From TrEMBL:
Annotated InterPro entries: Cu-oxidase-like_N (IPR011707), Cu-oxidase_2nd (IPR001117), Cu-oxidase_C (IPR011706), Cu-oxidase_fam (IPR045087), Cu_oxidase_CS (IPR033138), Cupredoxin (IPR008972)
Domain of life: Eukaryota
Names of the cofactor(s): Cu cation
Protein family: Belongs to the multicopper oxidase family.
GO annotation, cellular component aspect: extracellular region
Location in the cell: Secreted
Record keywords: Copper, Disulfide bond, Glycoprotein, Metal-binding, Oxidoreductase, Secreted, Signal
Catalytic activity: 4 hydroquinone + O2 = 4 benzosemiquinone + 2 H2O
Database matches in Pfam families: Cu-oxidase, Cu-oxidase_2, Cu-oxidase_3
Plastocyanin-like domain location: 14-130, 142-286, 347-472
PROSITE patterns in alphabetical order: MULTICOPPER_OXIDASE1
First-level EC class: oxidoreductase
Protein name as it appears in the record: laccase
Length: 499
């Protein structure tokens, strides 16, 4: 565990989280990376130190703080080619930012190519010492972290050459797992004491699969989604897509024993035999052995339409689909294995979009990559709809917007909009059914270019992205805190000057 003021060293190390040895790209030398633990309204000062040297994988890096809004500090968002040039090896970059009033469960990961699939991902939690809703949950312990990730035996330099879907070798829970035919590598153990209630922070650190979480014999009460407190909602299974986070309350009210925690992926190996895709929930006093529990019937199914913000924050703007100040349809497609949004496949521009904007590119059409940048004026309500026409394979696609949480006014699987008390989050499923039309709203109150993309990292790498270039006339606010080191990450012979 590290604090909000820290060095974060990125280095290569050989690890075997599922019993198979490979060189990985890691934060702090471990997988997942160290928990960054902050308190509400802490200032962050994280110095990312690039010590990468394994030439079989990318040597540059940049680190994104997923879910942190970077209000006034777009430059610190850590997104290669959108908000900064990548950090070359043997260089470092200091991210100084605050997260006013943001609390809950977040994560950090590489935002350079598909580097986080090589290991560069870790949890970030902002605790609220005086959580006003503690009585609602009645939690005895909120220290449990449950990260879910896919794992690959090949480096992404190999995986990225695969045409079509990439399949993970194993699933890791808290960085431990097994692969079919592999050794009986240790599994993650989550310790509980009978009678107590726990807040489990569930993090979808996946590169690709969506996972469905169940705990044999136990139900879960959702109290947070993506850093937003929810009206408590009890389920017995929880879909966790790449990039999504939940807090759930688990009451250890069963007989003292071991229970399987199961995370069923939507692709790849879906077996639970021999500990695959599982961790152990161990009651104090239970023997140190594998559980023999079986999964219960799913009764309390998850329904995103039921998730509502505890704050009861209505969606901004005039209620009614298409009645925002700015209404944008983003049509996802796929041509020759490249994903498209409104017929354009995203590719990295030669220089970061923020640098282009600061340098004074006058027209949205000047901004590169052309066709992928949507310019948004300040202080407007923007509504984005992502109709599912079935033209983008490999769903459910988790669609993520940087710089904001958004009000999901129409969720997948339910066409009735909710403008009254929608869930606000930062990563939402596009759904799997043709006819789904996920729609969300946010206000353009945060200047800078924000990446919007599918959080399946291989899909992002194949162009499933766009850039929301927001409130250009307020960029001087961002320049105020821009450190000199920022521009020095870019080659000096580039045609732009930040002014
Ligand atoms: Cu989790 Cu573009 O990020």
């Amino acid at each position: 565990t590290i604090g909000p003021v820290t060095d974060l060293t990125i280095a290569n190390r050989v690890i075997a989280p599922d019993g198979f040895k490979r060189s990985a790209t890691l934060a702090g030398g471990i997988f997942p990376g160290p928990l960054i633990k902050a308190q509400k309204n802490d200032n962050f000062s994280i110095n990312v130190v690039n010590q990468l040297q394994d030439k079989d994988m990318p040597l540059s890096t940049s680190i994104h703080w997923h879910g942190i809004h970077q209000q006034k500090t777009n430059w610190a968002d850590g997104t290669s080619f959108i908000t900064q040039c990548p950090i070359p090896p043997n260089r470092s970059f200091l991210h100084q930012f605050s997260a006013p009033n943001q609390t809950g469960t977040f994560w950090y990961h590489s935002h350079f190519s598909t580097q986080y699939c090589d290991g560069l991902r870790g949890p970030l939690v902002i605790y609220d010492p005086d959580d006003p809703h503690k009585d609602l949950y009645d939690v005895d312990d909120e220290s449990t972290i449950l990260t879910i990730s896919d794992w690959y035996h090949d480096p992404t330099t190999v995986l990225n050459k695969i045409i079509g879907p990439v399949t993970n070798n194993s699933t890791l829970i808290n960085g431990l797992g097994r692969y079919p035919g592999g050794p009986l590598s240790p599994l993650a153990v989550i310790n509980v004491e009978q009678g107590k209630r726990y807040r489990f922070r569930v993090l979808g650190l996946s590169c690709d699969p969506s996972y469905n979480l169940t705990i044999d014999g136990h139900i879960m009460t959702i109290i947070e989604a993506d850093g937003v407190e929810t009206i408590p909602e009890t389920v017995d299974s929880l879909p966790v897509l790449a990039g999504q986070r939940y807090s759930v309350v688990v009451h250890a009210n069963q007989p003292v024993a071991n229970y399987w925690v199961r995370v069923l992926p939507n692709l790849g190996n879906q077996s639970f035999t021999g500990g695959l895709n599982q961790a152990i929930l161990r009651y104090k006093g239970a023997p140190e052995e594998d559980p023999t529990s079986s999964p219960g019937p799913s009764v309390l199914s998850f329904n995103e339409a039921k998730l509502a913000s505890l704050m009861n924050i209505p969606a901004p703007g005039v209620p009614g689909i298409g009645k925002a100040d700015i209404n944008i349809n983003l049509l996802a497609g796929n041509v020759n294995n490249l994903f498209t949004i409104n017929n354009v496949s995203y590719h990295n521009p030669p220089m970061p979009v923020l640098l282009q904007m600061l340098s004074g590119a006058q027209h949205p059409s000047d901004l590169l990559p052309s066709g992928s940048v949507y310019e948004l004026p300040p202080n407007k309500v923007v509504e984005i709809s992502i109709p599912n026409t079935g033209a983008a394979p490999g769903g459910p696609h988790p669609m993520h917007l940087h710089g904001h949480k958004f009000a999901v006014v129409r969720v997948a699987g339910n066409s009735t909009p909710n403008f009254v008390n929608p869930i606000w989050r930062d990563t939402v499923s596009m759904g799997t059914t043709v006819g789904d039309n996920v729609t969300f709203r946010f206000v353009t109150d945060n200047a800078g270019p924000w990446f919007f993309h599918c959080h399946v990292d291989f899909h992002l790498n194949n162009g499933f992205a766009a850039v929301m270039a927001e409130a250009r006339n307020q960029l001087p606010i961002v320049s105020e805190s821009l450190p000199d080191t920022w521009a020095s990450l870019c080659p000096t012979d580039n045609p732009y000057t930040a002014s």
